[in-house]
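Exercise: predict the structure of this protein bound to flavin-adenine dinucleotide.
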Amino acid sequence: MRNFEWLEPRTLEEALAALDARSMPLAGGVDLLGELKDHIAAPARVVNLKSLPGLRGVRAERDGLHLGALTSLAELEEHAEIQRHYRALAEAAGSVGTPQIRNQGTLGGNLCQRPRCWYYRSEFHQCLKKGGGICYALAGENKYHAILGGGPAFYAHPSDLAPALIALDARVRIARQEGRRTQYRSLALSEFFRTPAQRLVGGETLLQPHELLVEVMVPPAGESRYLKFRERPSHDWAMAACAAHLRIAGGRVHEARIVLGGVATVPWRSPAAEKAITGLPLEEALSEARLKQAAQAAVEGAQPLRQNWYKITLAQTLVRRAVLAAAGRPIPEV
Ligand SMILES: Cc1cc2nc3c(=O)[nH]c(=O)nc-3n(C[C@H](O)[C@H](O)[C@H](O)COP(=O)(O)OP(=O)(O)OC[C@H]3O[C@@H](n4cnc5c(N)ncnc54)[C@H](O)[C@@H]3O)c2cc1C
Ligand code: SF4
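Solution:
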């Protein structure tokens, strides 16, 4: 680990003012400490966010949920309102790592965590993502990599919370300091992430080095579920996952949002899959033919690598099951 300056700001303004291209914010540290120890990240300054006031906790308001960026994953998993009305989010948070990781890891850190590609995590591989000239995964070990949204890099987006929150139509609030004033902007979480073609080196979001994610807002939701398949059931990132969110009224599907995780370089929303079941009477939307159509649409354009063809079938199965589950129908265990 390279030496760095350690900063303990007492206010958001102080934290923002200390951030620049040579600094990094630290929330729970679950991801960042690993990067520092493994020589993947080498900031000159680390800005500890942990004791900032006002960035932690869940507020349930009339316009939906307001989630502070420093809220722990365990709190999201266990919160009664989230379990009752935003089930996909509780399930996604509960599926992350181990209880220790969920106690330590935060919402903001989970959304901004860096890729798990082993070439990226190896200090001995200077791949495209780190400013080098080659993507080692292309001809190398690519079992866990992306089948969608790839090129020139092919890592799979690692966050479980991101697909669930996008399915729930969440927005993010971003802060930056301009002189003495703190400025905020907010945007749909679906627009927050960048594919490697949009941004290769640096983060996987549109955050600038002097900005912080401060809040996630989730509007009142319909019925939602998050299903995830992982290699080690005890704790692992998704090989594939699907978040489905349905608004059902009068026996009809008025709105469907379907987002895949673990199979693309960004959380992968599929408008074509959503269209296949939207506007239909519920029984027709849940028919085998319609679910198959939605599942096929969700992976349209997939370009698997040598070792990850299995993700096509896996993602399709998860789409079918997540939609059934969101509609309250029984599904076989994945
Ligand atoms: C063994 C293991 C298993 C795991 N399994 C899973 C899993 O199954 N699913 C899953 O989704 N994740 C998994 N993770 C990842 C884990 O969930 C994340 O590493 C964790 O959520 C990061 O949160 P943190 O608060 O510790 O972030 P940190 O490590 O503090 O930060 C992570 C990154 O985000 C940046 N950052 C943090 N907060 C902000 C903010 N508010 N604004 C802007 N930038 C910010 C940091 O600079 C850093 O680059 C696993 C991790 C481990 C070690
Ligand atoms: S997939 Fe991305 S992170 Fe992995 S080796 Fe290729 S460029 Fe690097």
